[in-house]
């Protein structure tokens, strides 16, 4: 599935990410995911002081990415269009 995948979601909303994963799981659709911490883990306090994220909402510290196979892309798009 390396070259045979399409991006279905990329964003910082954990709620949307979890809803999409639940839909994929319920419909037995295989997917690939990646969760990236945008604030590089130096340390909780040092990171916030150096990167300037002190007081920032932690919900936006992560970027969620989900891919599905090209064959399932249209189906998944229709399943998640109302999220």
This entry's quaternary arrangement is single chain
Percent of residues in β-strands = 25-35%
Query: End-to-end distance, in Å?
Result: 25 Å
Rounded Rg: 15 Å
**Number of contiguous helices:** 3
The share of residues in helices is: 25-40%
β-strand number: 3
Mean of the pLDDT scores? 83
Strand order of the largest sheet: 1-3-2
Principal-axis shape equals globular
Largest sheet report: 3 strands, antiparallel
User: What class would the helix/strand composition place it in?
Assistant: alpha+beta
| Low-pLDDT ranges | none
Output the helix-strand order: EHEHEH
Which secondary structure elements does this structure contain, and how are they paired or packed?
Blueprint: E1 5-11, H1 14-26, E2 31-37, H2 44-51, E3 62-69, H3 73-80
Antiparallel strand pairs: 1-3, 2-3
